[in-house]
Amino acid sequence: MKTQTVLVSEIATPTFKYQKDARKYVGGLGKASKMLGLTYGLSASICKVGGKLKKIKGSTCEFCYADDRGRYAGPIVKQAHANRLASLYKSGWVNAMSKAIETQSYFRWHDSGDLLGMLHLKNIVQVARNTPQVKHWIPTREKALIRRFLKTDTFPPNLCVRISAAMIDGAAPTLAGVQTSTVHIAKAAIGHACPVSESTLKTCASAGCDACWNTSIQNISYREHVKNKLK
Question: Rounded to two decimals, what is the model's pTM?
């Protein structure tokens, strides 16, 4: 994969008058049926830490739901992922993303895929700063990247970054000032148990839950479900 060359200083050009043009420019947005708001995903095949974890038995990535499974294996989704990846190298990506999601109340980054590097993270942070009316949530396994970012910068209050645990039924990651998430099967949930992962009938809206976006909730635990389906 080529080195990302998007620069934060390029966010002013081009500009977008219409949201439909901005969404096309960034490769389109997704809609997960159980989520609040729209989502953004990249291919799980290019995850850095996740790519290593999926080879480890018992890891939270071993049975990744987005790793060429279900709807993520379809040609339409794969093309959308490719279009979004290509858009990351375009001047004006931050400006386009800001326009594309400005009418959302909630937005989830990376319903598949993960952060690709520091410039990628900084550009997403700038999008969050540009859209204070939107609650942003980034689940990530790139703990080292987040630690490096926090040495010189901070996250805006409308952006909840959650570092994901590496192992199923494992301890929550630790990094001062950053929220976390875990996955459970055999052990009890740590902290807030996601009600949507506990029931196939619930959605975030029906459960009245926006905990994933809430920076006051330190850890959220999700029940593993893909592994059992594949047995």
Answer: 0.88
